[in-house]
Design brief:
By secondary structure, the protein is α+β, with helices and mostly antiparallel strands. It is 44% helix and 23% strand. Strands 1, 2, 3, 4, 5 and 6 form a six-stranded antiparallel sheet that branches.
Amino acid sequence: MKIVPIITLPVYRLTSETYYSQRDSAADKTIFGGSDSEFKIEYAKQNPEWYSAFKMHLNETFGGAWNYNEVIGHIELHFMGNQVRGSYWQDNKKRFVKTRKKQFVYKTPKLCAEMSFSRKSNSKEIYEVVLAYIERCRKELKGRYIDNSSLQNLSKYIDWVALAKGV
């Protein structure tokens, strides 16, 4: 049976909001922590250039930007006949912590059970099945963030019926 690729979705270790909150907390604790915190706060107010440069340095040493750096895996969505399926690739670690050393390994040809659509389905119905499959993947990858924003942005321009037929 013919496999028709749809899109590859990144899977993140955590959401961007959580990451940036942790990064800001770590920077503030480093800058303003300790028994002389009142002095440090006053110094930062008087020297905003120093504070800005130091915070930027701490943000970079924490791990930089969330985009791409916190990816722990990828889901390759595809059609197989009238089914939506997703292969899963993941970093080869047992525990996911903030790191910048990754090596992705193939984990499974089927992250969760496939979802079928009728061969008579219209474009909107097929897209809804794709979204439902992604939701199923989210349940399988508890505590992880699957970024399907690219798919959502492109979906209105995609002829899902033609794509499913492999045209």
